Every structure is written in C-alpha cells, then in structure tokens.
Amino acid sequence: MDKFGFILHPFAAKDITRKYPIAKPLPDMLIETALKYAPPFKISHICGIESAHNRAEGWFVCCPLTTKQMVELPEQFVLNRIIQAGKVAEKLGAKIVGLGAFTSVVGDAGLTIAKNLDIAVTSGNSYTVATALEGTKAAAKIMGIDFPAANIVVLGATGSIGAACAQLLAVQTKYLTLAARNENKLDKLASQIFRDTGLAVRTTANTKAALKNADIVIAVTSAIDTIIDATDLKPGAIVCDVARPRSVSKAVAEKRNDVLVIEGGVVEVPGDVNFNFNFGFPAKTAYACMAETMILALEGRYENFTLGRDLTIKQIEKISQLAAKHGFKLAGFRSFERAITLEEINQIRNNAEIKKKILLQDGCIA
Fold it and tell me: Residue 251 belongs to what H/E stretch?
C-alpha cells in the first residue's frame, strides 16, 4: 500500500482545541507560547483511500505554529519546524509529504524543505488551481454568468497560484484584471500573458477598485488578514476564495445575501476514507492540496511535484488527468466552512437580480 503524509498547522490558537479540547479555556497568548516550543506530532492516521487502480494510507502531522507565528517568527525557525514535521511523516513511513496552508508559503515555497527531507514533497498548488477554476466555472453557470464574457479579477495574481490561474484564464475569457501590490511583477506577468495568448490584460494595485466591477473574483492572496469586505462587491458577484486564511471577511456572508462566496479546491476522495480528524469538512472530502498528495501516492509518483513559486500549465493538466484516473472530483460547493446547496445558490441569484433592479431604479447603476 502506498503511503503519504500531510502537514497541517492551526490557523489560529483556538484551532488547536480540535485536538486538545482541554485548551479551550486558555487565552490565545498562552496557547501560542506553548505552541512555539511544542514539537511536531502525528494528528491522525488516514485510511480507506482506494481508487480503481490502487490503495493508499497516510497521516496528518501537525506543525504547531499558527499563521500569525509563521509570519512573525524568524523564517529559519519556522522552516526548521516544518522540516521537523516532515521528519515525523518520514518516520511514520510516508514516501511523499504535502504542505498545507502556510507551510507551503514560508521561505521559498517548499524548496528548502524538500532539500532537507529524504522523501518527496509537494505543495498541492497544481490541483488547487485546477479545482478552483473548475468550481468557479460550475458556479458561474448556476448564477447565470457568461464565463467567457465575464469581468474576472485575479486577486493576488503575482503569487504562484495566482499567476497560474491568470495564465489559464487568459485563454478562457475576454476581460481579465490582475490585482496585486507589486506593480512591477504585475507588468511582467501581463507581458508574458500577452506574448503567450495575445490577450491584453488589465493590471492594478488598487484592489478595491478592481473588485467593484468584478463579475468573478479568484482570491489567491497569502495575506493573514481578510481583504474583501461586504461593500467591495457588486450584486451577483462570485468570489472563489482559494486563500487560507481566507481573503473574504465573514461580514460578506452576514451582510450580502446577493453574492456567492465559494471555497476553492474542495474535492471528494475515492474509497471509504476516514481521516480520523475533524478539520471542518463533510466526510470523505478534503482540500485539493491534500488531494494532490493522495493522488501522487496512489499513482506511485514519489517525486517533488509542485514546489517553488512557479507553476506550469503542464503540471496542472497532469495532476488533473491523474485525479480523474483515480476518481477524485469536485465535492459540490462550500462557503465559509459549510456546504452550500443548489437551492441556496439559486436564492443568492434571485437576491442579486432584485438588488440590481433596485439599484437601477435608484440610478446607482447604468
């Protein structure tokens, strides 16, 4: 049986209470102090993954640092802790390990980690891109948005996932805007896309302005704070939030019943899988980054697959083919850590139509 590991970390201090409920009464500062000195450890054994071609098992391993700590602590300290988590996976018998959330962002996006482990490493970003775009197109169809003619914004376009999304979207849509803080990197990416596809994309460092006119937003930032607020989006807009921690404020869910926010990269895992750990998903579903590690294990491809800041279209297409081969597929839609039904999406579409009519009558939109 093929074996893999996957490194998780708590987004916030209170997330550690999923494993250790006894810590619930403790203040965040005390939890974070304890986490800083805690060694990585096995969270759970993953069993029951089975495709038509192979079976696999694995382990979740915790790198006990929060997102905030990964950003604020010295980079080498954080990298060493992630490498230690990879060593735990090695000792458990994993032949490949996946990097979850910020463990795939720190430093050089996995390259240093891979050099210090005796097993293969992948960030999962290739399959994350594939499923995010697949899910967004499916959602656009339900919301009545003509995807090729939609005004699409990639938020965080200069990151590895954002740049790959932009390159794939450039051959699927007419109106594409790339938004990020670094204007020089934006210009280089726009020039590359024009050379490769002939599409003249717009670029901007003014995120708020770009969001106001977007029909679809692909949010792939690596910021630790939310970027998209309730007032930033027009009625009927779709946001695919691939970022972890999320880019979309909870206020959007609370105040805007006329926009659709979906989580990118949520997939159904083949077989009678049991993660033996609750990370907030329905049974037998996982993030796409987790799924990429499982797919490579099922295929027996123990190689560094997705690492560094650059993704290639070839990588994304290959992992998509392997996912289909082994029976991985989109698991419906999720929004703010819960499943969202087709009926709910249709209600959002209706709410958006009503809101547009009111704005039109008031002269707020042309």
Answer: helix 250-255
